[in-house]
Amino acid sequence: MEKNNENTLQKIRSGRACISDGYQWFSARFRRIFRLTWPAAFVFAVISAVASALPVLVSPAFVWPAIGLWIVAVILFLAYTSRRLRKHLLEPTGPIPFSARMRHLGLTVLVTIVCLIAVIVLTLITSLPMVIMMAANWESQIGVLMGDPAGMPDYVKWLSIGAFLIAGFLQAYVWMTIIAPLYMANITIALREKERKELNIEKI
Questions:
Q1: Which domain holds residue 129?
Q2: Residue 159 and residue 170: Cα distance in Å, rounded?
Q3: Are 54 and 62 in contact (CB under 8 A)?
Q4: Comparing C-alpha atoms, which of 75, 77, 68 is closest to residue 45?
Q5: Signed CA dihedral, 38, 40, 86, 193: sign only
Q6: Higher model confidence: residue 158 or residue 51?
Q7: Closest among 118, 115, 107 to 13, alpha carbons compared
Q8: How far apart are CA 26 and CA 78, in angstroms?
Q9: What is the mean pLDDT of residues 71-88?
Q10: Chain-centre distance for alpha carbon 192
C-alpha cells in the first residue's frame, strides 16, 4: 500500500498542484516525519534559541551574528531533514541538469515564493510569544540604562529561554513544509525532461 502511495508522487503537476499535494503529503505523514526528524528539530530549536537570546539577553551588538547563526541553522536543518526524508519516505528523483532547471525556472520560482510566504506567515504566528518576551526584556534593559530599577524578575530570563526553545521547535516544522512542494516540483521537472527526450528520439 505504501508503495502504491509513493508511486502516486511520480506524475507531472502544475505549480499550484505541487504546492497543494506537497502540503497534503506533509500533513498526512506528519507522525512519521516527526519520528524521523524530532532530534534535528530539537537541535535547531536550541540553536534558534541561542540566536534569539544573544541580542536580547546578552547584548544588542549581537544582532547581526545572531541573524547569521539563524540563517546557517535553517540551511543546515533543511539540508539534513530533506536528505533524511528522501532516504526514508520519498523516492529519489535523480540528478536534474542545470539546463533543465533553467527551462523550468518559472515553476521552481513560483513554488519557492509561495512556500516562503506561507513559512513567513506561520513563523510570525509561532513567534508571537517569543516577540512578547523580547519586547519585555528590551523594555526592561532600556529602563535600567535610564536609571530605573529592573522591572523584570530574574526568572523571566528562563521563561524567555523556554519561549525561544518552544518557538524554535515549532518553526523547525514550519520550515520543513517547504521540502515536499519543492520535491513535487523536482519530480515534475524530471518527468517533463523525460518526455522531452522521448519526443526528440521519436522525431529522429
A1: 12-203
A2: 17
A3: yes
A4: 77
A5: positive
A6: 51
A7: 107
A8: 14
A9: 93
A10: 27
Give domain status of residue 5, yes or no.
no
Is residue 29 within 8 Å of 6, Cβ to Cβ? no
On whether residue 118 sits in a domain, the answer given is yes
Per-residue DSSP letters for 17-57? HHHHHHHHHHHHTHHHHHHHHHHHHHHHHHHHHHHHHIIII
CA 52 – CA 35 distance, rounded (Å): 26
pLDDT digits (tens, 9 = 90+) for 137-180: 666 666 656 665 555 666 677 887 888 899 999 999 999 999 99
Residue 94 falls in which region: left (phi positive, over 0), alpha (psi -120 to 50) or beta: left
| Residue 2 forms part of a structural domain | no
Q: Is residue 114 part of a domain?
A: yes
Tell me the CA distances in angstroms from 106 to 112, 173, 176, 182, 196, one per residue in order.
10, 26, 22, 13, 17
Give the chain's domain count: 1
3-class SS of residue 36: helix
What is this structure's pTM? 0.82
- Under a CB-based contact definition with an 8 Å cutoff, are residues 37 and 176 in contact? yes
Q: CA 29, CA 201: separation in Å to the nearest integer?
A: 39
